[in-house]
Amino acid sequence: MALRLGQRVPQFSLPDYNQKDRKLAEFLEMGTTVIAFFPFAFSGVCDREMCTFRDSLSRLSALNGNVVGVSVDSIYALKVFAQTYNLQFPLLSDFNKKVSRVYGALHDTWVAWGYKGVSKRAVFVADKRGVLRYKWITDIPSTEPPYGEIESTVAKISS
Question: By CB count within 10 A, which of 16, 91, 101, 141 is most buried?
């Protein structure tokens, strides 16, 4: 079942790259939360996407927003990814693909290589109460999210 705007987002708990279990509720308590699913660390478009979120983090924080990255990569790959690009927001490992599936952000088969179970590039914005206020999902791995729309949504929620 696809997530609809205005409904509560599914709660989840996933490990971050420091092997700490992180719950969505802790991020929602901090404010509007941007949940950014991405296919793979160190894969060009994903690098640009996560670096763009890194570069916009101060603007989003000023709007009472925060960012959480989610992929099916291992916690070890995510740790090196975060260190390499100086990502100052949590990256969570959905290695078992449960959260990506629940959010409708999972490719059954990915691109020409036939990989199974890779996160789609998708962005969800939830307000402090956990209500879905924005969603964007693409089946085309090379397409980056509309960053301006995401930032505008965060700004609108905080006003």
Answer: 91
- pLDDT surpasses 90 at 2: no
Let me know if 61 is exposed, middle or buried by CB neighbors in 10 A (0-12, 13-18, 19+): middle
Q: How many residues does the chain have?
A: 159
**Mean pLDDT of the region 100-109:** 89
The tens digit of pLDDT for each residue in 18-67 reads 999 999 999 999 999 999 999 989 988 999 999 999 999 999 999 999 99
CB atoms within 10 A of CB 76: 11
Residue spans per domain, the chain: 13-158
Which of 113, 114, 133, 131 is closest to 123 using CA atoms?
133
- Amino acid symbol at 35: I
Domain 13-158 classified CATH 3.40.140.10?
no
Q: How far apart are the first and last CA of the chain?
A: 31
